[in-house]
Amino acid sequence: MANGLQVVVLPSRRAPIVTQVLVYKVGSADEVFGHTGVAHFLEHMMFKGTDRVASGEFSRIVSRNGGRDNAYTTFDSTGYHQTVAPDRLELVMRMEADRMTGLRITERELISERQVVLEERRSRTDNVPAALLDEAAREQLFGRHKPYGMPVIGYADDIKKLNITELMAFYRRFYIPGNAVLIVAGDATPEAVRKLAEKHYGPIPARKVEARRRPTQGGADLPQRVSRADARVVEPSWSCDWLAPSYRVGETKYAHALQVLARLFGGSETSRLWRSLVIDSKLALSASAGYSPASLGLTSFEIGVHPAPSRSVAEIETAVNREMKKLTDGGVTADEVERAQNQLLAGAIYAQDSLASGPRLYGAMLSTGGTMADIDAWPDRIAAVTPADVVAAAQLVWRDSGAVISLLSPAEGNR
Questions:
Q1: I need a surface site. Which of 184, 221, 225, 236 has the fewest CB within 10 A?
Q2: What is the 3-state secondary structure (H, E, C) of 320-386?
Q3: What pLDDT, on the 0 to 100 scale, is given for residue 135?
Q4: 228 in the same domain as 163
Q5: Per-residue pLDDT tens for 48-81?
């Protein structure tokens, strides 16, 4: 659009519903140490009202009209979404456009919502040993006080001191048309969406969009080990995270091969790692590998294992390292690669068919520097990955100089 807002329409007539997702190209990685949690806190405050919509009424209006709504914050983006009947699309579009410029925050609302956010941190992080360990691991992997090394929700001490001035400055800086992507999926035509978007978002004036920056290096002094023994832990777990290139930073040419690697090595119960550790040797209860390239900066490749009862961490590490070496030294077969490619392609088709995950998939790509052409080309790029590409990607990423090993275990006397 003329003011810089990008609008994407994903038509589907399978059901008489439509989902609007407005994704802002800003997340927790755009914060600085000492002022963490702003992006997530602002997400909460966006429901507090404008001059046109009273505080708390946004979600109630959506609900009264038979819809549902929510929001999310990630390291690189913040999204707001509503699912409604097609004839209610204009309603939610009008309200969403209104709060792009018209947010109002009072001190009373700030104080009460602060307790909500702090409780969310307590329940999802401070009371979850695995989440606390993950925070510590990310600090080591990406660097302490660095964008991806700080939690999305923020540190409790920072949340306690956030004020209206800081929240509104962040809002005015990033919540602008040229820094957003509007995605409408479901029972709507591009022509109808264009008309509504021009009517409700079009009048919002364009403003300069700031360039976003991310570090091109990870944490110092890698490799590292982090551990946590906690009385709340029943079963131990072991994992290893490696710094990895994304679509945007690092050796980006390996991003598609790394997706195939994660799938064939530990992406399902037919993967190499699962078959070796869970089925054949009975060393583990589960084993997995994961990698997501949609990041504005560096990302990570993870292997995680839940040891079987009475099996030691040393046995797990030895077995994982053995499987990794078999892959990097002996390669992978064309059949393995083809099976992983087919699984990835099938998963993408199912995701795009969903009015929940489909728009978020587009939002993640478009908010981190990707284009519609990148999304359209993804199946061909995955299909073009060769066995040699997979091995080269593994050799690139699976290096001690980029690794953090994490161990979560029951406290002594609670085993």
A1: 221
A2: HHHHHHHHHHHCCCHHHHHHHHHHHHHHHHHHHHCCCHHHHHHHHHHCCCCCHHHHHHHHHHHHCCC
A3: 97
A4: no
A5: 999 999 999 999 999 999 999 999 999 999 999 9
The one-letter amino acid code at 64 reads R
Rounded distance between C-alpha atoms, residue 83 and residue 12, angstroms? 14
Domain assignment present for residue 211? The answer is no
Q: What φ, ψ does residue 198 adopt, rounded to 5°?
A: -65, -35
Digit-coded pLDDT (tens) for 231-283? 999 999 999 999 999 999 999 999 999 999 999 999 999 999 999 999 999 99
What angle in degrees, to the nearest 10, is found between the helix axes of 334-353 and 372-383?
150
b/e string for 76-90 if b means 16 or more Cβ within 10 A?
bbbbbbbbbeeebbe
Q: In 288-299, which positions are buried (b, 16+ CB within 10 angstroms) versus exposed (e)?
A: bbbbbbbbbbbb
Q: Quote the DSSP letter at residue 221.
A: S
The per-residue pLDDT for 414 is 46
Task: Say what the pLDDT of residue 22 is.
Answer: 98
Q: Which residues does 313 contact at the CB level (< 8 Å), separation at least 6?
A: 236, 238, 307, 407
Q: Are strands 18-24 and 180-186 parallel, antiparallel or unpaired?
A: antiparallel
Q: Which of 31, 43, 302, 336 is catalytic?
A: 43
pTM metric for this prediction: 0.95
Give the number of domains in the chain: 2
302 catalytic per annotation: no
**Widest CA span in the chain:** 66
Residues contacting residue 228 through CB under 8 Å, at least 6 positions apart: 129, 132, 133, 136, 407, 408, 409
Say if residues 1 and 198 touch (Cβ distance below 8 Å).
Answer: yes
As a whole-number percent, the residues of the chain with pLDDT over 70 amount to: 99
Q: Assess whether 255 and 112 both reside in one domain.
A: no
Judge whether 42 and 170 are in contact, CB under 8 Å. yes
Task: Judge whether 298 and 148 are in contact, CB under 8 Å.
Answer: yes
Let me know the angle formed at the C-alpha of 328 by 325 and 331, rounded to the nearest 5 degrees.
120
